[in-house]
Batch of 2 targets.
Target 1
Amino acid sequence: MENRKFVKFLILNLFMAMISLPFFCLAYDDKTTHPALTDEAVDLFNYYYQDYKLTDQEKEIIKKGSRDEDNAPRWVNHFYDPVYNQGWLGNLTSKQWAQSVPAQSGVYQTTSSGLSFNYFDSVSDYSWERAVFEYADRDKTRGLLALGHVLHLIQDMAVPDNTRNDVHPPILNMGSPYEGWASRFTDENFQLAEQLIINKEKQIIFNSLDEYFDSLAKYSNNNFFSKDTIFDEDYKLPISDGEKQISNIFFIYKKISDQEEILLARKYKIYNPVSLKYLNSYTVKDEYDAVVTSYWGFLSKQAVLNSAGVIKLFFEEVEKERQTLALKQKDSTFFEKLFGSIFGSISRSLKNIFDLTFQG
Amino acid sequence: MKFLNSFFWKSTLGFILILAISLFLLWLSADPQSEEFLKQEQLAKDTEELYKNDIYGGETPEQTLQMFIDALKAGDTDLASKYFMVDKQKEWRNKLIESKEKNNIDGFVSVLESVDIKKEGKKLFDGNYQFIHPLQNEKLPWIIDLVLNPLTNKWKIESL
């Protein structure tokens, strides 16, 4: 049964990958930006948690996972609007996708999962539970690869377009200007962990993956604009604290603290051919890339701090699993559990009879 | 005893048969290609097709803007709207029809021709270009925003 499912799913994936991969890239660039953010997150984690220190080889496996998550058709589930709790066009939110073994296994609407095949068997499943299960109970490499996939989803929450339900045709540079601009960062030219360590900034700590998704999605949704949601009536935030002129350009900004502010957008004029009048408008593009640079300064830092926190949570969950074996039990098929239970009962009964006969 | 034996075996066989049929039905239902999944894929394919087939525009931002002005001068609002990005074409088709009905196209063209195409263009990051036109007695400039469709290598108007 699993072979048939696997072959069908593989054929479908190969087909979709062939037709889609050259054209589609969503949120941060999967070849450059995601590995860059993941690289820094691992460095930050390694500095603060020497006991768990990940080797260079392990880091590369996690980075590979963070690259692969954009493979078709996974990217349709990479959106999470925390204001309306929705994904793209009714698809799963990325928060749900990251934690849904059935959805990632390609079995959306089946009742037979776990009946006669193992719960964690699908080749396309890189969910959070799978990551923990593999690392703790079966295959460490597969576990780290799945962790990389989850980090990709967390980092996407630091892209306003992904959290403000603003999905553009994701065709190379025709998507979000912020994402297009940020694709210049690679694991070779992006350095942040060292600066964070100097500033004594630590990874963000939460007790669940849900909290990471909610916190980062709200941060990017409430403080930044995406291309087509500038002062959109669907979103009350962010609110501009005023206008300022830099060189010859007028920007609107939002104050974060006494020293820090986000350049929200450039103010300019558009022309209405019906009324023949110029109207005010706003854009995240400007000739100095000042707005997208400002966004990157805040969002990349949050992406790294949250990713490092998720790595910490991952190792805590692995420890828990090693003690409880809860996921290992979940992985057993229905028949394994049934027969395990029957043979277990017989074995326990025989042991009791033996004990009563020879020791009682 | 013979009856009991016969009943026992019939019941056992019946149970096994029901179990086998149930498992077969469950196996059939374990189809990874849910309707939702296929719908998503179709949507992605359709979007890509739209952009692949969008052949309207120039090889440079300057050419696209000039083609847009020429279409307006010829009164072809339908063609003019096709120089916009795919997701903006419908909105602009309606705007241009309304402008034409109000006899405002000529006024629009003269405003567009006030842009110095050779001097006011500015390349932003990859695939992004703007004409930044200063306005008299205004601190804010008028910006015409263009992006490159990499599937056709044509420049498209994003906002104006």
Target 2
Amino acid sequence: MTKKNHTLTILLLLFPGVGYIALMLAAVLVMTVLQSMGLFNFTGISQFGFQEWVEVFNQQTWDAFAYSTKVAFASSLMCMILAYPLALFLRREFLAKKYFTAVIRMPLFMPALVAAFLILNVIAYHGIFNEFLIRLGIIREPLRLTHDDWGLGVVGIQIWKNLPFQTLIVTSVLASIQSDLENAAKNLGAGPWQVFRDILFPLSIPGIVTGVVLVFIGIFGDYAINTVAGPKYPPSLAIRMYANANIFNDWGQAACIAIIIIISSMIYTWIITRVARFATR
Amino acid sequence: MAATTRPTVSKSSLLSKKQLLLFTRGTVFPLVMLVGAIVIIGLPLLMAVLWSLVNPDFPWSYPDVFPPHLSLFQWDFVFRFTDITKAILTSYTIATLATLLAFILSLTPSYAIANYDFPGKETIRIIVLLPIILPGMVVALFLSRVFQFLGLSQSLLGLVLGHTLLGLPYMLRLLSTSFEAIPREIGDAASNLGATNFYRFRDVYIPMLLPGIFAGSIFTFITSLEEFSLTFVIGTPTYQTIPTILFAYLGYHFVRTNAAVVSLILMVPNVILLFIADRFLKTDFLTAAYGKL
């Protein structure tokens, strides 16, 4: 087989699945960009221009952007902080480990809407969480945790939903670090803390960052959970985008917000990677 | 007598102190963690089950910790007066078709990814992941515009095509992982013995791929069952699936008891499917699907 033939074979083999994804997503992205430029306007006049972009940068979009950023940072950071010790704990053998792993994996298999519903029940105004805190005497009045202005309910749901995923990623990253290094360090007299600080943590960061980024992006662009448990105002960026498109029939504005979501996700990914690299230096 | 008892006492107390430490680390701490996990994960589930069994003649309200009376009224109600039966049928039809299509589309690409080295392989891997990475609502909204253009909006075909797009990453990843696990020599040996490509595929690869196919199918199936945004934008109001019905009960007209029933209908098959997969597949396919990203 000649070299050229070989390349052709590989391309043909790849085409069905990879081509399907590439073509569909390319169509989606092209459609988004064109609509944000005033083209393909289904309801009004289609005219090329930057009018949509001038309009999109207003206080409401900014509020939605700030809200989505806040919730995504808070949830993914908490997930990370909780997942790391959990993954370290899972490295050891211990009593009933099988059951523990099975239980903490459960939320991974729950659809986002179901997770939202389950947690809403617990944190409702007269829900079991508030009742518990009141009986313990920690609070007097029940806390307002659903549809609260800060988005605490959403953060709670996102942590519950994403923690198993984050833990899974950290566990698999930690497992891929060769135990020789750890053993060598221990032989040379390093304590557990030193092993963690100088070996496990720096070596695990690159893999973990991928997990953090995926969780972050997922929460940043979330629609369903924010609709069900989020504040009345501000909406998340995805809610604002959806409302513009399907309620106000303003697809140009929706397309601009879609591009804002994608570009900010990329910028945040870059920032998170940067911070992680800085932390391991 | 005193001389013989004293050392044993001190020895046993020394041992017990060490044992106590070991006992705490090896038994008490893991048990505390297990109980904590069961409360944090299990309590919300238990609440959902209880809410789905509330008898409307004996409402469950503050300050009752448990519903005063349990009945199957809510289940009966949801099945009798809502579109749930139709939605279940639609959900499972779409999921089956999307899984089949994703499997057919994934076979040759995952073979190529596993067996050849070529420039741009990393780019291919990223493209494969994009449907999971891109925000669901963005893809849903603008795919609906593209579909509108092609006349696929509000159609079953459009829904199947969209769900296939979202399931493909899992299918491709799990299949290419299991292709990678097959030693090159086996395929070569079959060729040397005169097997054509078709027979090599059917008699050598497919049997060894079965666990991967099984895992990939389960993941694609579940992704499709859970998918909300895409169905919501492209399918409703013509097609309702279980998640869009749940969304209606959670948002527009919030009915806790109905939402509890629909949540369980959506969730229980997922958990069972993944439990079966976990039992029958020796390799840790969860890590293959989600890990090593």
